[in-house]
Amino acid sequence: MHREPHTAWSRSAAEPVGVLGATSFVGQSVLARLQAAGLRDTDPTAADRQLFAFSRSPAAVAGANASAGVHWCRLPAGPELPTEPLPPVPIPQWIAVSPLWTVSAQLPLLAAAGAQRLVAISSTSRLTKRNSAAAEERALAARLAAAEEEVLDRARAEGIVATILRPTMIYDGSHDRNVMAIAGFIRRYGFFPVAGAAAGLRQPVHADDVASAAVAALARDGLCSTYELSGGETLPYRDMLRRIFAWLGQPPRLVTVPLPLVQAAGPLVGLLPGLGRLPAMAARMNEDLVFDHGAATRDIGFQPRAFTLPLQGDSNHAAGRLLNR
Ligand SMILES: NC(=O)c1ccc[n+]([C@@H]2O[C@H](COP(=O)([O-])OP(=O)(O)OC[C@H]3O[C@@H](n4cnc5c(N)ncnc54)[C@H](OP(=O)(O)O)[C@@H]3O)[C@@H](O)[C@H]2O)c1
């Protein structure tokens, strides 16, 4: 059973928090968690603002500022410091859910805003795609590895204590690009193709559990520099697909492509435009992508839920909590 992770907001109760990448589905969960922990702008004209969300999109900022509880700020599209004034109060605490390689470039901005603490999101892809057959995926793993090192080094140089969280595949059954891409294919074609047994183990982690861990980590001292965040249930890829079929109310039609055929055709298929990652994705269906989140449980109180898709009709399901952008 899912237990609420520990999100006590003790040390930092009154300290403002800034959120980079706040428009994303994980960012929206972070804002909701911070608000639930008591950080809320009740008066948009007050000097003691507490919750700052950043986006590169002027439309998102303009639209979102109409909503209560969060002060939205414009982030420059590049690494330059903003031309608009920074918020008038120091922001000592930061959560970054934007791509990690953009975060190190933003560290001077964070330092100028008074940052002391940063929790940033990387990905277990840093480890799982290191030896991928697809050059694009190996490049992503290398980019994440370099970004982790750079964020930790630069943060140290700026006097900011940084913690990096590495989630496995993130879902919410509404706005994610993992479950929703599979669900979209199933809705369209009524089946899903799998390579061989598709028995590779997966640990999908819910966006709200990632958000909860980020908020909890912000309030803790003495953490390690990195933590893996895997979901609360480990299941074979094939079973994950079956759950998605059931969620959609459809019979589980898995069309198995024999592995030897996938392996033989893979190199040729990979040469076709737009399909470069397909052979690597097919091969991964039979690889275990499993991580121990014990350190995060011990130090942050991370207690992820089992793979749980929202009930149809749930306000979070498809209707969307994201900003209209
Ligand atoms: N999705 C997954 O399964 C998964 C798995 C493991 C880890 N992660 C990590 O979790 C975090 C959130 O995932 P996500 O899929 O929601 O990320 P995302 O959509 O790629 O980015 C999140 C937000 O970051 C901002 N952003 C995007 N590109 C940017 C850039 N070049 N410079 C500055 N800001 C930029 C965008 O906000 P604005 O456009 O409003 O500025 C966007 O809404 C990311 O760090 C991702 O690497 C994701």
Write a structural description.
- With 325 residues, the protein is α/β, with parallel strands linked by helices.
- It has a domain at 17-172 and 205-233 and 290-300: Rossmann fold, CATH 3.40.50.720.
- The protein is built from 11 helices and 13 strands.
- The chain has a 7-stranded parallel β-sheet with strand order 3-2-1-4-5-6-11, sandwiched between helices.
- β4 (93-96), α3 (100-112) and β5 (117-121) form a beta-alpha-beta unit.
- The longest helix is centred in the middle third of the chain and has 24 residues, at 135-158.
- The two termini are 36 Å apart.
- The model is unreliable at 3-12 and 317-325 (pLDDT under 50).
- It binds NADP nicotinamide-adenine-dinucleotide phosphate.
- Residues 21, 23-26, 55-57, 60, 75, 97-100, 102, 121, 123, 167, 169-170, 177-178 line the site of NADP nicotinamide-adenine-dinucleotide phosphate.
